[in-house]
Write a structure and sequence with these properties.
The chain is α+β, with helices and mostly antiparallel strands and about 325 residues long. It has nine helices and 16 strands. The chain folds into two domains: about 190 residues, Fructose-1,6-Bisphosphatase, Chain A, domain 1 (2-Layer Sandwich), CATH 3.30.540; about 130 residues, D-Maltodextrin-Binding Protein, domain 2 (3-Layer(aba) Sandwich). Bound molecules: 6-O-phosphono-alpha-D-fructofuranose (P6P). 6-O-phosphono-alpha-D-fructofuranose (P6P) binds next to loops.
């Protein structure tokens, strides 16, 4: 008995929504196709000489890798032509993408994405990923501007990621739980392998870039110090630590076995607002994590509740096992 394909899964999900027109299902299928193409592009990078850096920088001030631009173009080309999308925004583009006039119809959705998150890892063969978020386009808006994208994370209709690791996985939520699919390269299809993913409420594993410790605020200093004290300390248990420097890989690990991931506020990032971007990293990952029974906070507020002020706005992120996130959020209140 083969597992069901993502196409079958999406159609069965669509049947549960009486008013569904099928456009959303087709939109998701175009995103799935883009992720398959990116998986191939990343997998062949070294063979075709696309692992290098470009001279250019993105709006984040980060040097762009060839694959950042290649994967961004793959996402644009796969999603611009069908007419379901009114506008797109990406980590790699300063402004929203203008859908070419020949493809423009009354698209109902906005698509935001980070085409290759963790791309600094790609030439050292550590897992990287694509993160995407789907919002409704405001009624009657045919050429969305930045302000049309600036909706809180609670307004997302879908969020997902592809993880290009030892296998290529696609994980998504439409607000009815979280489901994971593995790419069967022979078939060229994503197969349902992780139905109804749930994050364990407790954990003994945390993920943070320890090299930033001297810049952290007191609650984070206290939390990490207590974890490092182990079972002799106040937490009464030993902790394990991970840091992959690829958010998609960290979140996937947490969906499978629990954990806490954080890129907290630190004094060197304060003027930027944090490290991770709200619209196409923190919000989609927070939607997924909450739908899997986890929690996601800046330390001081629920990430999904934030009213965005800019397309590339950055926020502190603490997400994962809800009881562990609760401990650290509690320290921010004392
Ligand atoms: P650092 C990748 O660039 C990213 O946006 C996240 O995927 C990752 O968690 C973080 O930045 C890594 O940051 O400072 O450890 O390189």
């Amino acid at each position: 008995m083969h597992g069901i394909t993502i196409t079958q899964f999406l159609i069965e999900e669509q049947r549960k929504v009486g008013s569904a027109t099928g456009e959303f299902t087709l939109l998701l299928n175009h995103i799935v196709t883009a992720c398959k193409r990116i998986s191939c592009a990343v997998n062949k990078g070294a063979l075709v000489g696309t692992m290098g850096n470009l001279e250019s920088e993105n709006i984040q001030g980060e040097t762009q890798k060839q694959l950042d631009v290649i994967t961004n173009d793959i996402f644009l080309e796969a999603n611009q032509w069908a007419g379901y999308i009114a506008g797109m925004a990406s980590e790699e583009m300063d402004d929203p993408y203008d859908i070419p006039e020949k493809y423009r119809q009354d698209g109902k959705y906005l698509l935001l994405f980070d085409p290759l998150d963790g791309s600094s890892n790609v030439n050292v063969n550590i897992s990287v990923g694509t993160i995407f978020s789907i919002l409704h386009s405001p009624q009657g808006v045919t050429n969305p501007k930045v302000e049309d994208f600036l909706q809180p994370g609670t307004r997302q209709v879908c969020a997902g990621y592809a993880l290009y690791g030892s296998s290529t996985m696609l994980v998504l939520t439409t607000g009815h739980g979280v489901n994971g699919f593995a790419l069967d390269r022979e078939m060229g299809e994503f197969i349902l392998t992780n139905p109804d993913m749930q994050i364990p409420a407790d954990t003994h594993e945390f993920a943070v870039n320890m090299s930033n410790q001297r810049f952290w605020e007191a609650p984070v200093q206290r939390y990490v110090s207590e974890c490092l004290q182990g079972e002799e300390g106040v937490r009464g248990k030993d902790f394990n630590m991970r840091w992959v420097a690829s958010m998609v890989a960290e979140v996937h690990r947490i969906l499978i076995r629990g954990g806490l991931f954080m890129y907290p506020m630190d004094s060197k990032l304060r003027d930027k607002g944090g490290k991770l971007r709200l619209m196409y990293e923190a919000n989609p990952m927070s939607f997924i994590v909450e739908q899997a029974g986890g929690a996601s906070s800046t330390g001081r507020e629920r990430i999904l509740d934030i009213q965005p002020s800019g397309l590339h706005q950055r926020v502190p992120v603490i997400l994962g096992s809800k009881n562990e996130v609760g401990v650290l959020v509690g320290y921010h209140r004392t």
